[in-house]
Automatic annotation (TrEMBL):
Pfam families hit by this protein: EAL (PF00563), GGDEF (PF00990)
Highest taxon in the source lineage: Bacteria
Residue stretches making up the EAL domain: 244-499
Phylogenetic placement of the source organism: Bacteria, Pseudomonadati, Pseudomonadota, Alphaproteobacteria, Rhodobacterales
SUPFAM superfamilies given in the database record: EAL domain-like, Nucleotide cyclase
Name of this protein: Diguanylate cyclase
GO MF term list: cyclic-guanylate-specific phosphodiesterase activity
InterPro entries: Cyclic-di-GMP_PDE-like, EAL_dom, EAL_sf, GGDEF_dom, Nucleotide_cyclase, Rev_trsase/Diguanyl_cyclase
Domain GGDEF span(s) in chain numbering: 98-235
Gene3D superfamilies assigned: 3.30.70.270, EAL domain (3.20.20.450)
Length: 513
């Protein structure tokens, strides 16, 4: 049944129940029976006599029976069941002129524990969180888990659920949940973000799904404002959420139409000057807004859980571009594609990449897998580690991106079979003018050399930075000072011009020698 229709029917039944079962009805039963006899005779009397029990039966339908607080719910339910539960509680509340409220709570830190210690402590923590939540609410309130890190609390109908009362309750719940929690793997400290909405803030026509969505919107605002934040739903949040949904729809359409595509930034070998590879960077070519910044759409895709779809598009188009460059005789040894920790948790990632390489007739060594240093530092075990090792064994080149900004150990660099370190631009900026910066960069390059790892410096913006990096022994450079990211066809033209320039320089060198 359509949710809005179901909600309306439920409210009507509750209204009938109020009228029929209310104590005032007893006073009208004799008068109603007598009026039926006088106005319609024996037939009307029979209608009244038979109709009232039927009306009682209809109004006592199980759909509007008071919620049984002793009837257990599963600890984990999906969002459809959560919406239905909210609809049932909301219908009961509005039918008796009461209020309800929805809290959605995000456990921040569970994924880090899963990456470090596996699934066993997570099951224990889920149970502990549910028990603590149930201690903080009343007997008729409902507490369930609606995801790996997300929990839902629906309050039973109440007279006083104003903003102050709900804020007090949110604070009490948060303080209880953030107490240290012991499992077999040790003591864990989690932070919790809370979003909530009272039914009275959404108007008379609110539905259960709308109440749950409002609380989720408030939670998204809380999460975006740092750990342990609490937010109540407001109209402005709703407008922002609607705008993000519209943007997500546009992004999905852009992916389907090929408007989001890789642009390529060249990497140059410092010893030969030749192109040693390119990095594929996602760009959205919007038909009216022009080039949309990745910051605008990557966050939305991440929130919607669709980064895998973007990765598929970028990988497929990058390999297609490589094949086209090969056909033109353009020598570009490797294309590097960025992979987030979300994508690296895909258990079928290695098989998918192998299939794409085979389909394009591309050797695995020509594909670089760029992984953030923080991903390796936080994922010593599990599916992420297995995928990185599996891709390396397949023959792909593993680049550790933004090196120097995370906390990856030397042991992790060896275990994950990293081939190149991409030195973060924060080490490169002003290296030609800052002696301390130069010493730090020299130390990083020395470490890479002793470990037998190649290096790529990001963010090179001047000829002097390029020259100094060459002198310090950095193997490859990349940045605006060399070339900005560009579409595949422009990359082909740039590569031809760059190749001609390098050939000319070599010829001049031989003639002067």
């Amino acid at each position: 049944m359509i949710p809005e229709l179901k909600a309306d029917l439920l409210r009507r039944r509750v209204a009938v129940a109020r009228v029929v079962h209310g104590p005032h009805m007893l006073a009208f039963l004799p008068a109603l029976t007598l009026a039926g006899y006088w106005l319609g005779g024996e037939i009307a009397l029979l209608v009244v006599a038979l109709g009232l029990p039927a009306l009682y039966a209809i109004s006592a339908d199980s759909d509007v029976e008071p919620l049984d607080p002793t009837r257990p719910l599963p600890d984990l339910i999906d969002i459809t069941m959560a919406n239905d539960l909210a609809e049932q509680i909301l219908a009961r509340a509005t039918g008796f002129d009461l209020s309800t409220a929805c809290f959605v709570i995000e456990a921040e830190g569970l994924e880090d524990i899963r990456r470090r210690s596996g699934d066993d402590p997570i099951h224990s923590l889920h149970g502990s969180i549910l028990r603590r939540l149930r201690r903080e609410v009343r007997r008729g309130d409902r507490v369930v888990r609606i995801g790996d890190t997300r929990f839902l609390v629906l309050l039973a109908p109440s007279l006083r659920l104003d903003l102050e009362a709900l804020l007090t309750m949110a604070d009490r719940i948060q303080r209880s949940l953030e107490e240290p929690c012991d499992t077999e793997t040790g003591t864990h400290y989690l932070s919790f973000a809370v979003g909530f909405c009272g039914s009275h803030r959404l108007g008379d026509d609110v539905t259960g799904p709308q109440l749950v969505e409002a609380a989720q919107t408030a939670l998204a605002e809380a999460v975006s404002n740092g750990p342990s934040a609490i937010r109540a739903w407001s109209d402005s949040m709703s407008a922002e959420r609607k705008a993000r949904k519209t943007l997500l729809h546009e992004i999905e359409r852009a992916l389907a139409l090929g408007q989001i595509q890789p642009w390529f930034q060249p990497q140059i070998c410092t010893s030969t000057g030749s192109i040693s590879g390119v990095e594929a960077l996602a760009r959205w070519l919007h038909p009216t807004r022009g080039i949309v910044s990745p910051k605008e759409f990557l966050t939305v895709l991440a929130e919607a859980g669709q980064l895998d779809r973007l990765s598929e598009v970028i990988l497929e188009q990058s390999l297609t571009a490589m094949r086209a460059w090969d056909a033109e005789g353009i020598i570009i040894p490797q294309v590097s594609v960025n992979f987030t920790d979300v994508e690296l948790r895909n258990p079928h990632l290695v098989e998918r990449i192998k299939w794409e390489l085979d389909r394009h007739g591309m050797a695995p060594s020509r594909l670089g897998i760029e992984v953030l240093e923080t991903v390796i530092a936080e994922s010593p075990e599990g599916i992420v580690a297995r995928n990185i090792v599996g891709l390396s064994k397949l023959g792909c080149q593993v680049d550790l991106d933004d090196f120097g900004t995370g906390h990856a150990s030397i042991t992790a660099l060896r275990r994950f079979t990293v081939h190149r370190l991409k030195i973060d631009r924060s080490f490169v900026t002003r290296v030609d003018r800052d002696e301390e910066q130069r010493r730090m960069l020299a130390a990083v390059l020395g470490l890479a050399d002793r470990l037998g790892l190649k290096t790529v410096a990001e963010g090179v913006e001047s000829v002097s930075e390029h020259a100094l990096l060459s002198q310090l022994g950095c193997d490859h450079v990349q940045g605006f000072g060399i070339a900005r990211p560009m579409p595949a066809d422009q990359m082909a033209d740039w590569a031809k011009r760059h190749g001609a320039k390098i050939a000319k320089a070599r010829n001049l060198g031989r003639s002067t020698g």
